[in-house]
Design a protein that fits this description.
Radius of gyration: 20 Å
Strand order of the largest sheet: 10-7-11-12-13
CATH superfamily of the largest domain: Glycogen Phosphorylase B
Distance between the termini: 26 Å
Order of helices and strands: EEHEEHHEEEEEHHEHHEHEEHHH
Helix content: 25-40%
Strand content: 15-25%
Number of domains: 2
Amino acid sequence: MRRFDLTERWAYWDALTDRWHGRDGEAVRELYRTADAIFNLCGATKLRDEHRQGAKLCYVETDPIYEQMRVANGEEDSIGFLGSHDVLFTYGELLGTPSCRVPVERFTWIPTRPPVVLDLWHPGTEGRAFTSIATWENKGKNVAFRGETYYWSKHVNFVKMIDVPVRAASASSSRWIPATPPSAPSSRRMGGRSSTRVRSPPTSMPIAATSSARAASSRWRRTSTSGRAAWWFSDRSVCFLAAGKPVITQETGFSELVPSGEGLLAFATPDEAVAAVRTVAGDWPRHARAARRIAEDHFAADTVIGAMLDAAGLR
């Protein structure tokens, strides 16, 4: 926190031991009492009475479709949780538009996108490999909707793309380093390929600043049978762009709002993913420059957060 000039501006409450770290409980409760707004990122906090002292309560949904489907199913816990906020933001920028068939009921969602502080990311030299940071398999949040089950896990789509590294490497001499739990069966299968080396996340998080691209696969909500689900874009991919690292990622509808094809390349099939890798490898400097421009033009924190403040009536 000192590194980012936030020494006195953070607090963590260990609910199990009722211990505070950073600012103490009294200071935080005073902040709750005087704040103009409280932003609940990812819905990680269950709102309590101490949060409801006049501050505008803003929920920032980073993973769209899950709550919208649950609301459409009449799930009272989701309806009650969302209803406890004053303003609802979502990274699903196409929700409620003709491009997206996901139902939007009861609530008004304000579109936003992941912000990045550009000054904290500095484009460097060409990366050594194509990388991704992900959890192979998530459990516990699948949703049944209109007779179909939607899976809250990336591994479903990663398996479909498992041969992309070998195919791409044969044409471009590219290397791949996904940061995933190495015990996952899919991870072991990928790690057995000559062009791919799997790292465990705790030792490989810095690769976001040194790799040449992020080849990301997505969860169910981004590949539903409804077509383009909701526009979703990853905050990790945004950091790659800001660092001047080209991004190759699954099409979620983002190309309707952010230019793709140079610096940011979308794919829907393994063939398209292989072609994108070849394109980036063929002229990495051009795509690196384009990646940084996309971050500056479409994800700069001042612009994104400023628009959120305006939408919430906070300035």
